[in-house]
Design a protein that fits this description.
The protein is 32% helix and 17% strand. With 280 residues, it is α/β, with parallel strands linked by helices. The protein has a single domain, classed as TIM Barrel (Alpha-Beta Barrel). The N terminus is likely disordered.
Length: 280
Amino acid sequence: MASCDEVQPAAANAATRPAPANAVAGAAAARLTGTTGQIYSGTSGWVYKGWRAHLYADTPVKRWLQVASSAFSSLEINGSFYTQIKPETYERWRAETPAGFRFAVKGHRFVTHYKRLRDCEDSIVRLRDQASGLGDKLAAVVWQLPGNFAIDLGRLDDFLRACGRWRVRHAMELRHRSWFEPGVAARLREAGVAVCLSDAPDFPMWREITADFVYVRLHGHTRKYASSYSAASLARWAADARGWHDRGLDVFVYFDNDAEGHAVGNARGFAQRIANGTPE
């Protein structure tokens, strides 16, 4: 799906890798498995009091992860952006979720907003060690840069080298348009780090493919963190996801429009379109 503030890719990477065979997590899970890639989808976070009306009803809070992981095939852990999560918490989350379920972890803001990618190796290793309890259920780590953080190739190089200490898939959410240039794409492609495709009304999107997976964050197209995606918009995103999947790329799609609970319905609608097939 192309937004009005979207930058089209200069080139696409056709790298593929075999997809592991895992069980589908939840009846509504958006996931296709085969000789090509896989599609996972869900929400950014799951602990929202307002979601009782949309997902949890009278379920006790301690069981919310079990409910959410049954409804979706993946969840993005957002608390790791704000605080240090104990290793035993990650271990518990792994135990509470179905086989075949996957998590994404949001990198701590100390790396992206305070250090701004400089001298961040120790912080990356610390998060790596904390999140190790997720085991093979950790699918990717996404690093969200501030909207006022303009291109700095030196800092990017430092960050990519530091990411080499954590052998997991990494994605970068670049919110300043100055990053959208061939030199950045080349560095990310060499490191196997994905560009995070982010849809929001107040920062641009870069549809550049630089890794063997695609990472998408949908924040709300007209009202950030709040607006719902239309049926037509969900169909376009589903068609994009199936296209990437058919090229052999794994796909991770997370709905971050959680403020009014639309993330739940949108994630379910997206999953249904993936499961039922999406017309051109």
